Amino acid sequence: MTTLRLEAYLCVLLVFISLCTCTPALEAELDYGTFQGSYSARYNLSYWQKIPFAAPPTGQNRFRGPQPPTSIVNGTYDSTQSFDMCPQRTVNGSEDCLYLGLYSRPWSRGQPLRPVVVVFYGGGFIQGSAYFSIPPSGYPVLNVSSSNDLVFVYTNYRVNAFGLLPGKEIAADAMSDLNPGLLDQHAALKWTNKYVSEFGGDPSNVSIWGQSAGAGSVVAQVIAQNGKTSPSLFSKALASSPFWPKTYKYNAPQAQALYDSLANLTGCSGPNSLQCLKTVDVQAIRDASLTIAGSHTYNTSSYTWSPVIDGTFLTQPLSSATAKGQVNVDYGFGMYNLREGENFIPPGFQHTESSGSPPFNSSVKSLTAWLKGYLPGLSDRDRSRVLSLYPARGSAEGLPSYDTTHVRAGLIFRDTVLACPAYWMASAAHKKSYLGEYTIAPAKHASDTIYWNQVNSIQQTDSFIYQGYAGAFASFLETGDPNAHKLTNDSVAGVPELQSENQFVIAQDGFSDVCFHGHTCIQRTTVRSDSIPLHFFFILPQDRDKNSATKKGLFCLTSPYRDPNITVQPCRSTPQI
C-alpha cells in the first residue's frame, strides 16, 4: 500500500514537473512593469501584441526623440490588446503610438535563449503599423522549417512630418530632434538589448529586417553614428528592396522648404513657428504632411518625407558611409526585385497620349523631362549618359529584351533608389555579404512578400520556392549565413557570398548563382556630397540579341551640389559587358 502511494506521489510529481517545464512563460517582469502575453495553440506561438517602449511623444515631446516609458503602477499590463498606428495619411492614428509587439515559439525560463529579429515596417516613410494579428507578419519565415526558433519584435515608429521633419528650427530647439522616427527605431533596439531575454530572446544575437522603407530603416540603423554605435545593438541586417531616396542635410534648401511648407499650411509661419507646430491639432499636421507629399510626386523624389543628414545620428550619405566601411553590421543581405521601379514612375509612360498629373507619355522627350525633375542635380551630359546606359531597346537580367519607355524608366528608378542601396548596404558588412534579385513575374515592388510575410496558399502550392527563399531568410536571420540551414537539395543553387562577384537569383523555375560586377565602382576612397550623393546606376547590356543580361556594372555621375571642400575620387572603369 505504501509502495502504491509512493508511486502515485511520484506520478503526480512527474506530471507537475512536466507542466512546469513545458508551460510557456507568458508573464514578463521588467523594471517598469509586468506584461501579460498569450498563447496560440493553433500556431504554437507565445505573443505580446502591445508593450510600450517609450513615453507618448505628445505635447512638447512632439518632434522630440523618444523618452523613457512610463512605469506601469496599476497591476499587470494586458499585452494582448491592439494599439494605434502613428498619425499618417488619411488615417487618424494617435501620437500615443510608441509600442512594440513580439512573438516566438513557446519558451520557458531555463531554456536556451533564441536569436532575435527586429522588424521595421515599410510604407514610404509616410505610413505603416507594427501591430500584428495571429498569425503574425513574418510567420512564414519562422514556420518554413521546424528547426527555426526565432523571436520576432515588431516596433512602431513615427512617420511623415511627425517622424522626419527637417529644418534649422528643429535643430536649434533643445526639446526637439531631427529624424525622431529613426530614433524611435533606435530606442526599440535598445529596449530589445535590455529586455528581450525576459521573453526568451538572446540580446547578443539580434538581426534587423525590413522591406521598402522598412529596409531603408535598416539601412539607416546600419550607417547610424558613423558605424560606431556602442554597445552594438545588432550584428545582422536583411534589407528587402531598401527604399533610400536622396538624403539632404537638415538645413539644405530642399529640406528647409519642407519645414516652411508645413508651417505655412498649418498657419504656424512666423518667429514662433515650432512652438505653434507643437500645439496645433494633430490632424492639421497630418493633412499638411499629406498635401506636401502629394505636391512632390514625380519630382525630385516620389516620396517627400525621408531621413536627413542631421550631423549626429546620420552624419553622411549612405554611399559615403558604405564606401568607407563605417557601418554597424557584420553580416549583410540585400534584396531587390527585377521590375519594382515601375511601381513608382508615371503611368503615362505606358501610352502614346499624355496622361496623369503632371502629364507624361512614352516619348523620349517626356522621359527626358521626367529624368530632369527626378535627378535635378545631373547635367544634360550626365542625363544623356544615363539614357545611353538604359537604351530604348535593351535587356536587363530576367528581361531578355525590352523596348518600352515604361520599363526603361522603371529600371532607372529601381537602380538609384532600391537596387543600389541594397548593394551598398550588403557589400559594406564587416564579415560576410549577400545580394539577391527576385525575378518571378510580375517582380514588382513587394510582390516577393507573398513567400514570407503572411500565410497564404502559394507557400503550399509552390513549396520549392517558398523553402528556398524564405528558408534562406530564416537561415540568415538565425546564423548570418543563408546557407547554414539550407532547405533545398545540394544540387540547387544556394546564396553566394557577394565577395565572389555573384548574386542569388529567385526565378520561376528555381534558383541560380549568377555573375555580378557591381562592386567594381565602390571604393573605400570615394567620398560623396552631404547634399546629394553621387548617383550610381547599373550598366545594362545593350545588345538585345545576346542573353548576357545577368552581368552588369556601375558607373557614377558627378553633381553640381558637390561640397567644394570635398575631393571626389573618380570611380574605376567598369568591365565591358
General description of the model:
The chain is α/β, with parallel strands linked by helices and 577 residues long. It folds into 2 domains: 7-295, Alpha/Beta hydrolase fold, catalytic domain (Rossmann fold); 330-557, Alpha/Beta hydrolase fold, catalytic domain (Rossmann fold, 3-Layer(aba) Sandwich), CATH 3.40.50.1820. 29% of the residues lie in helices and 17% in strands. The chain is built from 15 helices and 18 strands. The protein has an 11-stranded mixed β-sheet with strand order 3-4-6-8-7-9-10-11-14-15-16, sandwiched between helices. It has a 3-stranded mixed β-sheet with strand order 1-2-5, with no helix packed on it. The protein is globular and about 65 Å long. The chain starts with a helix and ends in a 20-residue tail after the last strand. Mean pLDDT is 86; it is low at 1-21, 517-535 and 539-577.
- State the CATH class of the largest domain: Alpha Beta
DSSP E strands, number: 18
Put simply, the count of helices is: 15
Q: What is the helix content?
A: 25-40%
Compute the gyration radius: what is it? Answer: 25 Å
Structural class: alpha/beta
